[in-house]
Amino acid sequence: MGRHLMQKLVKWSRGRYLDRLYGDTPESNEPMLELAASMGFRPSEESGVPPGLTRLVLDLSNS
Taking the CB of residue 6, how many other CB atoms lie within 10 A of it? Predict the structure, then answer.
């Protein structure tokens, strides 16, 4: 179900011509981190992310 919802979110975002998607998830949420990575999300290097969270980003501008 998580993959299906993420795929819908990515499709909707591309349809709105967004450049990228961001999401924050707990560092300990390995299933979500693995799902996001399998869909092309990468950890962001930006500052200001609260401790204990990983900010994930998916670049939509190249698709």
Answer: 19
Which CATH architecture fits 2-59?
3-Layer(aba) Sandwich (3.40)
Distance CA 10, CA 52 (A): 25
The partner residues of 55 in beta bridges, in order of sequence, read 24
For residues 15-21, give the mean pLDDT. 94
Domain range annotation of the chain: 2-59
Instruction: State residue 1's pLDDT score.
Output: 82
Q: What 8-state DSSP symbol labels residue 44?
A: -
Confidence of residue 51 (pLDDT cuts 50, 70, 90): very high
DSSP state of 21: E
Give the position of tokens 């401790």. Answer: 51
